[in-house]
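Two quick folds needed for the group meeting slides. Do the first one here.
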Amino acid sequence: MAAQFGRLRKGAVNTTVAAVVVAALAASQAPGVTTDDAGRRVTTGTQPSADTPAEESATGNSPYYTDLPPLNSPSPSPGTTTPVTPAAGEAGIPATVLDAYKKAEAALREAKPGCNLPWELLAAIGKVESGQARGGRVDANGDTTSPILGPQLNGNGFANISDTDGGAYDGDSSYDRAVGPMQFIPSTWAWAGRDGNGDGEKNPNNIYDAALAAAHYLCRYGWDLSTQDDLDRAILSYNNSRDYLNLVLSWLEYYRKGTHEIPDGTGTLPSDRSDDTAGASPTPTPTTPSTPTTPSTPSAPSTPKPGDNGGSSSPKPTPPTTTPPSTTPPTPTDMVDHLEDADTAKLTAMAGDTFTEKISTRAETSAGKGIPKVRVRFTIIGATDATFSTGEKYATTLTNTAGEAVAPALKAGENTGEFVVRATVVGRTIAGLDYTATVTERAADTLTRTSDTALTCTPGGEFADQVEVKATYKGAVADKVAATATLIKSADDPTENDKGPYFKDADGKTVRTLTGLTTDANGLLKLPKLYADDTTGTFLLRINTAGGATLTVELKVAAAGTSPSPTPSESTSGSASPSPTA
């Protein structure tokens, strides 16, 4: 993180003190967590992954503010008016910023209820990353009054992340910087960004957009933040630091005890940072070249004393030394020349189903050798409601020892047709690799009646029982499958009959073909009531579904105490079960 926040002190000592204080907090109810007397929490369980590169965290592991929560209660006494003092500003959250956090929590409660995201977690991260958007320096729309930018991630005391956005978000075309009140790096914002205020834009310097993006980012991978392990993992994925985790947990517990709203722009600005710089400017600062110095005159060689150099009267020549230029070994990401398909099978699934095949991509050198420990991002592209099994349209995995990265399973939505999944290397601008996936309509291969009761009626009456069938596909329930039902002339003539039993439409008119039918979640389809005209005999009702399942059902119309005249027997096709014969 890193905005210019007024008074910023050198952070080396402050960071050490903060880390010691946070790490010393003790005792809690949650497993792996302890608290101090003020209830501030620290974790003793999950360790951050050493394999997590900076560009794969939300912030690129940028610096952050290390101010600890106050020991006093965050809530003002009931019935009192809290003046806007430094202490009150520390405990309070600016109105627009607080509103953004709560709206993001509400959105996630609906979109991903299993995540159990508390808005207080967003507040804790927002405090550590930007001091709640620099004390709430935002307008009514949620835009920050000036950009909040972290330092250049140029490898000089920070991660080394070359520019990925052409300076579009951070104004820097050389290196990436963390951006906005939640401090997203551009490469992460490109896929994690959200429109939180409904203005049609995804702006990392808008608190509504940034808070919603952070909420979704913390809830990816199916994490449940009400459990300590998943909470720890989510926070560490935001910034992979043990001190960061403990600090965020402390602010989370502080805000959970209660907080209050304060006017925008009146929040306390943080002063202590996790790095030892004086802070980053909102725009890149050019470096002033140093003035070359006048080379010094080499001193004359000293006269050796007798006995020096083995008794020789002349000095022993010293061979010149050459210091090789310092080089940084290439990272696995730097070594990638291209991506290659790793024998991914044809990607096809029925609407609503999970694809049985997974996408596998191999990161290779120019010689075709697989490269391990490379981050590969998979992104779903196109007009589709398909997602990965995580519920997101993106996923990032690390290549294995063979250089292969396997994407999470794809889950088809209800939209049929083709869409593309693109594999790219995180942190590199090499060509991506596209995979085409196809979603087919829901289908059934078998239809059976749920009852063996004969369907009979007297002329001009109505059938006592409604026709109900169950659809299955490969033995499993076939839900939401499209179907049609038609009263046909005979087993060999599927055209609509013009006499005999019929349905009624909403206006009470005779209908002998029903379209737009769909099986329910249990694969069941119950047809409307059937009525009979004055024609007696045995008639046929044929039901067809997407996927080819067909069932033909006998309907008998006869006067009381008589048998109906014979008609061609009912038939079934495909794997459908025959209807019972009266």
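Then this one, please, same format:
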Amino acid sequence: MSGLRLGVDVGGTFTDLVALSEGTLLTAKVPSTPRDQSEGVMNAVGASEVAPDAITALAHGMTVATNALLERRGARTALVTTEGFRDVLEIARQNRPSLYDLTRDRPPALVPRELRFTVGGRMGPEGEISALDEAGLKAAVRAVREAGVESVAVCLLFAFMHPEHEERVGEALREALPGVHVSLSSEVLPEFREYERFSTTAADAYLAPKLAAYLGNLRSKVEKAGIPPPLVMQSAGGVVRIEDAVEDAAAFVLSGPAGGVVGAAYIAGLGGYRDLLTFDMGGTSTDVAPVVDGEAQTTTETVIAGVPIKLPMVDVHTVSAGGGSVAWADAGGALRVGPRSAGAEPGPAAYDKGGEEPAVTDANLFLGYLADGAELGGEVVLRRDLSKKALEALGREVGLDALEVALGIVRVADAEMVRALRVISVERGLDPREFALLAFGGAGGMHACSLAEELGVGTVLVPRAGGVLSALGLAISDLRRDYVRPYLADLSGVEATDLEETFEDMESAAAGDLEGAEYTRRADLRYRGQSFEITVEAEEYPDVGRLGERFHAAHEQRYGYRMDGEPVDLVNLRLIATVPVDKPTLEEPAKEEGMEGEAEAGRREANFGGEWVEMPVLDRGRMGAGSEVEGPAIVEFKESTCVVGPGWRGAVDGVGTLVLEKR
């Protein structure tokens, strides 16, 4: 094989690899290495046995930035801001995470108060109000140096419109502190709303040194192995060069999940399905997202670990219900699942790596959905006796036997995942009954039918590469850069020629970053007085009237009403620059004549609703296009398992996706 494009996705439990070449697809799965994720990447490349000189590109999705935010293990960061605005990060929106629980508090700010410094001088909406205080700037730089920080966020008022003061502060800091990373809000997020701009810039500064260290380590290992420098998946759903990733750290907090949504949209599109709810259940968490008309939906309203990051990201909603999520009893004796995960080390009790608490994987194994002795990732062999022991121990706490505990764990996990799917469908103005549910991740196929029944979804899609779909999404991702320009104006007073000139200026800037890029134009609009915007498409030669109509229609879909007579404000113009990569066309060989029964690899008892039922176990590797399955049944894929529930039936389509429908 030659001309290989590799996608490597690091998850909380396993690291997945997909290699593509002219429609040929090769996969590998190895345990993740939490202490140094780059080791897992190289282990996956080794397990794939591909020749380094055959690799033309390596795209990578990781959880380094996400974990640093969740665990508060980023860089020691300082903030320099306008005099009088030192506490914007802490004041935030003056809301509480739980309105009636006075014991709960927001997560602490990324920059503690003693590391926040101010400078005199002021910009307003029309420009400079008072000159930058050079003496105060010198004092602030000196204080930052004495604080011994690794990174600095610079956020001055109105820098999104008039960045001159902020650029001067950044210049002084970079000159005096050559080894310290400096993030300017006018470069990270040139948008209005001080708190979100401060928060996003602080996150960028907080994450940059950690991300730079990780990517530098990975790059040296990759180049030593004779592989091209990695491309890195960003949260918006495209890859960038490693140098650009280091300069834009906050854009990578959803690096891994974005790859899965891209892969899901692509695979489903090949089979003719363009409206999807994607359901990625891995070892640590479950990620869900909507795909509308073949395109992954993005948002700028993401909050990670209590930190708003107002950059374009795939509209992923994450819940702590993965295969490794630990089951436990709360103070009232109720059965709970997550948020704590057994992860890759020690893993669920069945892994026999020291874990003694039951996880969702233990429940699925005990119920017969997984085979006793099954091998995961080449290194883990599942043991049902250990799962039973852990379930019985928890059962003694809640007064249930092992079977009741296992069924309860699955029901609790399913309820959490159904809530997540409703967030990205019903709460977005989308009717889940009009969508197909595409299940992937190592555990997605085991829960898909039951979730679909709960939501009223009639079609479930399980791709052949479902266990490594995030890695496939990485391998086929286009190069992408996102740009934003503030444009605060009443839409009715905007001239189309002005919009066209602004977009052309943005495209000229983008051309210097990506050669031969294709451009997509968008605009953020709102009804006057609203505190949120909706992003709509803008054509090549923007028509102001069409922009307004698109906004009214999008608002009605999302919130159930429109106000045609109300004035509409244009807030931001956005540009997406992409350089497409060649994508393979996947074909599933037809099943051989007279081989209908050959796919059955055996029979196994599994439990549905408290009843043990003997059912066929089908080997997905022996199935071809047209192969049919009728539930209850179990289909074992190379990297995952699909449980076809009672009342479901389906067949493998021409691109290798198992299409299940409710009878």
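Slide caption for protein two: The longest helix spans residues 194-224.
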